[in-house]
Amino acid sequence: MPTLIAPDPQRPVExxxxxxxxxxxAAYQVAEYIGAAIESALAQTLPPHExxxxxxxxxxDLDGALAPYVDRIVLVRQQNRGxxxxxxxxxxxxxxxxxxxxxxxxxxxxxRLAVLGEVAARRPDIDIFATDAWLEVGGRAVxxxxxxxxxxxxxxxxxxxxxxxxxxxxxxxxxxxxxAVDGFDDSMRTVADWDLxxxxxxxxxxxxxxxxxxxxxxVRQGSLSTEQxxxxxxxxxxxxKARRLADLTPEEQATAAIAMARRRRELALVEAREALRDxxxxxxxxxxxxxxxxGYGARTRLKAAxxxxxxxxxxxxxxxxxxxxxxxxxxxxxxxxxxxxxRSS
Length: 345
Description:
alpha/beta; 9-stranded mixed sheet; two-stranded antiparallel sheet; 13 helices; 11 strands; 44% helix; 18% strand; globular
C-alpha cells in the first residue's frame, strides 16, 4: 500500500475506481531523448489509457525517433508555440480521467501509474498527485527531488503555493479540473506548471504526494530550469497574476507580497552576477545595490562589496566558474566530469 501525504478529507470519502491515465509528452528538439520517455510509458505495470505526444514544431529528426511508436501513440502537431501550448494541445486530444505529465527528456519507473492509480482510487477528492523523483546527471542519480530543502506542503496549500511551487512537474492532474481552469497559460515561457497548480489550488483543488521516487528527472544544460533570470521573472509574473485574479485573504495577499519581494531580491542578485560575469559597465552599480540593500545575508553583501571593489578580477573568476558547470533543477550544480557525462549521455 503506497504512502500518500495529503490534506485530510473535508468530508467522508469512499474509495472509487482506479482512474485512467493519459500520458502527455510535449516534444521540441528532443529526438535523442523521446524514445526513452515513450519506452518508460509503455513499460508501466498499469498500462496508460493513451500516450499523447505533441510535436511543437521540431526541426530535428523527431519523426525518425517516433517511427517505432506511431501505432502506439496519439500524435498531435503544431507550429512552435512553446511548452505550455504543446501540453495544452496534448491535453485537448486526451480522453483519460487524469493527465500525467512526462517531459520528453525524462522517464517513469515501471510502477508509477499503478501507484498513482491506487492513491487516486483511495482519495477521489484529490485533483493533483505528485511523486518524488530521482534527479539524474549524465545517467547517474545524484539525489531525490524532495529533501530537506524542498518539501511538500500539506497544512495550508493555498498559502504554500503562493510561497513556492511544491509540486514536481511530473504530476497527474484530473482532466476535468485542468480544463476548468483553461490548462496551462501558454503565454508563460517559464513556470507554467506553478501557475497552473496555483490557479487550481486557489480555485479549490487539493494536492497529494507519494514520497517514493517513481520517475527520473534529467538535469541538463539548456533546459528552462537552468535559466535563473527568466525563471525568476516568470515567478514574479505568476505571483502578480494570482494577486490580481484570485480571491485572496489579507493574510494570503501578504504572503504573496513577501514571496514577490524575495524573488525581486533574488533577481537583482542574478542580474548583478550576470553583469559582473559579462564585464558590463553597470556591474558595479548593481553590486553596490546588493551590498547596501535590505534583505540579503551578511555573506552575500560582503561578497557583492568585494566584487564591486575589483569587478574585473571578480568577473573573470566568475566566468571561469560558470564555464565549468551550471545550476539545474532543484539547485543541483553540475561541474567538471559530470557536465561532460551529461553532454555525452
